[in-house]
Amino acid sequence: MQLRYGFRPYPNGRQCAALARAFGCARVVFNDALRVREDARAAGLPYVPTAELSKQLTAAKKTAERAWLGEVSAVVLQQSLRDLDTAYRNFFDGLKGKRPKMGAPRFKSRKDTRQSIRFTANAGWKITPGGKLRLPKIGDVSVKWSRTLPSTPSTVTVVKDSAGRYFASFVVETGPCEVLPETTPEIGIDLGLGHFAVLSDGEKINSPRFLRRAERKLKKAQRALSRKAKGSKNRDKARHRVARAHARVADARREFHHQLSTKLIRENQAIAVEDLAVKGLARTRLAKSVHDAGWSAFTAMLEYKATRYGRAFVRIGRFEPTSQVCSVCCVKDGPKPLHIREWTCGACGTVLDRDINAAVNVAKAAGLAVTACGAQVSPGLVPAQRGEAGTHRDGQPTVVGIPVL
Ligand SMILES: [Zn+2]
Fold first, then answer.
1. DSSP letter for each residue of 80-105
2. Strand pairing partners for 2?
3. Rounded CA gap, 114 and 130, in Å?
4. Where are the alpha helices (DSSP H) in 173-294?
5. Longest CA span, the chain
6. Is 190 a catalytic residue?
7. Residue 355 catalytic?
8. Residues 325, 336: Cα–Cα separation, whole Å
9. Domain spans, the chain
10. Which residue in 136, 302, 391, 401 has the fewest CB atoms around it within 10 Å?
11. Active-site residue, selected from the candidate residues 83, 190, 201, 353
């Protein structure tokens, strides 16, 4: 499978300037190509193929007003055209109903918070024997290598975020999987609002203090920003502080998701989660909470780690009435308003905690053998799919990142 590995490069002044040029050129190429396609569409002409855009790009480099595109690696510019193609494909697939609907590609602005360029294998980038990242027409950039890459990466994407930090993200082909020693527990997870997650064994997990602290600081920075006069120097400074606080929250959240997903994958053979229609929820009052919690990022992480480490991962449909059915006797006694956190089952008399009951139902719906609060094992189990027992790697899995889709 393909994984992304992220590191922090620290370009020097000259390299920062070269990167800024490359970001700018990639943006201009993207916008020029988008304009060609939009003009064609407005004139009722057919969709302009990528080969034609590529030809126009080559011609543009020979003109006086676009000659500076030659200062940047040609691969970076070609990748920018690819990005435009991807944006169009996603847009069209959304219209056809193949994926969630999204807007048409938009022009990129110099003020965009996140800028990126991508170097593929044929760009001639490499990691030097001295541990520098050699980027064509940019130079040998120092990188803090926080872990080792399992194999030679094919692609590197260099990103500058709104807080002014640089990231180098490598796509690496990893072996089929590194199966962890088999274990027996199987677990259902309810991603709720009161807690970040509730497990079918009764454990309730909240976001950690370091994340809550970062979130508080972000709120404070946002309030300070809203008080600053528009167009003032202080507002610029405040905006920068908000961007940095945002970045720290995102980092802290990712760190928490990694810790929790790794722990759940190590300790359980099979994991079931409710398939959250985040898009559906996002239109409701719960929206902010859904986005803040980053559940979809978390479940995606669980899923790829399950694949990688030979665990079973199941998503169950979102219409399963996890809060309506007693997880002990399976009697359905109807919906309950959100404020009811605990009730006594009318059929069997068990006192049920809303969140734990939901987590147990998730596990049962996925056909897992679950023990809730030491109470019950569901009858008629469907055996969960198991990975083959394999080699054991020492220590924590070191993988980070998101699967490449
Ligand atoms: Zn019951």
1. HHHHHHHHHHHHHHHHHTSS---PPP
2. 173
3. 29
4. 209-227, 233-267, 278-281, 287-293
5. 82
6. yes
7. yes
8. 10
9. 2-173, 186-376
10. 391
11. 190
Q: Distance, CA 210 to ligand 1 centroid (Å)?
A: 39
Determine the angle formed by the axes of helices 233-267 and 295-309, rounding to 10 degrees.
Answer: 40
In the reported structure, the alpha carbon of residue 326 is separated from the centroid of ligand 1 by a whole-number distance in angstroms of: 5
Nearest alpha carbon to residue 397 among 314, 312, 310: 310
- Rounded CA-CA distance 291/276 in Å is 12
> Which of 372, 370, 367, 379 shows the shortest CA–CA distance to 312?
367
- Please report, rounded to a whole number, the percentage of residues in the chain having pLDDT higher than 90: 42
pLDDT of 392 above 60: no
Q: Are strands 204-205 and 270-274 parallel, antiparallel or unpaired?
A: unpaired
pLDDT (tens digit per residue) in 136-145 = 999 999 999 9
Give me the percent of the chain exceeding a pLDDT of 70. 84
pLDDT for position 176: 63
Is 38 designated active site? no
Residue linked to tokens 């699967």: 403
pLDDT tens figures, 221-247: 999 999 988 888 899 899 889 988 988
Q: Quick check: 167 pLDDT over 50? A: yes
Mean pLDDT of the chain: 82
Closest residue by Cα to residue 125 from 70, 171, 175: 171
CB 331 within 8 A of CB 347: yes
Distance between CA atoms of 378 and 154, rounded to whole angstroms? 47
- Cβ-Cβ contacts under 8 Å for 292 (sequence gap 6 or more): 215
The type of residue at 35 is: R
